[in-house]
């Protein structure tokens, strides 16, 4: 609805536009305007006084009154409609306000409920978090207890294993001590026993050897030929000394008397002698000498590595026994594979001890039990270089010979230049190449320690060689124990 004001003279005309009355109202205003113009013009030019004009004026006034009445009716109706519309709008506004207030109340209620739910969930989450944390702490504590139990069990197992190892070591030590004491007791008993060394006549020797028949000859050593014979139904080996070695019968007889009383499991037993002709009678060894077995002479089978370790320990044991003999230490002077004999069980025994030198007690007080001889005796490649150069003999001279024998056991090679080849192989990392393949699959680490010990024994200077009793023998016995586990 639009309202406008128009000034015509002193009167105001109200123009109301509506969808239904705009055209009629405008028309009435136009008619009214025309009437006004006519009235003005009549005032300026007074009309003629006639009855027709009076009637027209009355008609116009009547029309104006009718139009005004209609407009007033319309305005009244419009005002009534507006009031109704206003009431309706107010009612709708009230309704919307009520709805808004209800929505606000519902929103507040929902918010309160939401806050309650959030608080409940938060409290529940806190409770659950607390429970989870407590469960985690319980699990960690249980895991820590299990860990402590596991560590305690492991520690207990280690202690039990340590105790078991100690018991095993103690038992082994007790067994070794018992065997050692038993062996020492047997050796002492044999040493203290009065052993009569039988003296054979030359006729008995000739009969046993069939007049030294070549068919009974089983070997040739640096001291003379060796014959196999049978005396009193016992197989024996008779060694006939060369004529130049048979001189000095009193000294020979004295040494025979001393050596005949010596008994050791790894020394060939001297059964008797024929002093007049320089013949020595020994027990017979079925598997002959170590040299023949190392080089597989006459098709003999090679020795396995564990047997070689055991033989090395046996040789060192016998040699140590000779060096500790009192009152005079015995130096073998010619230790080599040919003088190491093997019985039917491949137990090694050192032979030719009867030709060894008794180091006097006065000389035994010197370092290494040394004495001065007029001429060096021994075999090339096995003889101590310092003894060969100076003529001074000592127990360390046998250590050098032992080192060469040990190198031959591990390589199966001849003694010439052997120390150089083994030492070069170790320095260049080719030690496995020098091991004797016929001995089987060697334990390389143990064989290397064995070879390094042998090289130390072969030092040129006597003072640089290791001690037999405290260094060499314990290591060889350890390797012997290893070989016994494999065998």
TrEMBL record:
Swiss-Prot/TrEMBL keywords: ATP-binding, Coiled coil, Nucleotide-binding, Ubl conjugation pathway
Every Protein kinase domain range: 212-479
Stretches assigned to coiled coil: 126-183
Taxonomic source organism: Genlisea aurea
Pfam families assigned: Pkinase
Keyword Coiled coil set for record: yes
A single MF term (Gene Ontology): ubiquitin protein ligase activity
Region named Disordered: 32-55
Substrates-to-products reaction catalysed: S-ubiquitinyl-[E2 ubiquitin-conjugating enzyme]-L-cysteine + [acceptor protein]-L-lysine = [E2 ubiquitin-conjugating enzyme]-L-cysteine + N(6)-ubiquitinyl-[acceptor protein]-L-lysine
PROSITE patterns per the UniProt record, alphabetical: PROTEIN_KINASE_DOM (PS50011), PROTEIN_KINASE_ST (PS00108)
Protein name: RING-type E3 ubiquitin transferase
SUPFAM superfamilies: Protein kinase-like (PK-like)
Tree of life domain: Eukaryota
Segments of skewed composition (Low complexity): 42-53
Main EC class the enzyme belongs to: transferase
Keyword Membrane appears in the UniProt entry: no
